[in-house]
Amino acid sequence: MPTSKTAAHGVARRTSEVSEFKFHELFMEELKDIFWAEKNLVKALHKMQKAATSEELITRLENHLEETKGHVLRLEEIFKMLGKKPQTKKCEAMEGLLAESQRIVADTADDSAVRDAGIIIATQKIEHYEIAAYGSLRSLASVMGYMGIAEILEQTLLEEKIADSHLTEVADSTVNEEAAAE
Asked: Which PANTHER family does the record match to this protein (predicted)?
């Protein structure tokens, strides 16, 4: 197996050990990132729900808000499974997506289907980010042999995909047509 020397101590280490440590570190940083994202999404979903007018959209946002609270709890459980205290790391991507959702609400008329269409678009962008994050985390967990953690991440990934699908249904069933007519 290839070896490399550390500069500080001149101790030979297997390259795979160094890579594994960095890989685990990557996993932990991404876990902190999505934990921040989910915690902040709880607040944002509540605001979007209050700004929406379509009853179907309000219901979908309410359901996803409850799921998101569950995602936060699952992430806390994953940290515990790893023997770590739950920590967040500011997620720049989610911060931008959440700011965009706030702009959409601010830039559209109250009680309008256009606002609802904008909320759906903003929320689906968030869902797609989460789908990418959870899919990647699940893959990393599997490679490291954290099968229990991978299963938890898979469950959340599935819920994110379903939430995205439900938002598409709301947009296609009424909201987009109503928004186009305004």
From this structure: PROTEIN YCIF
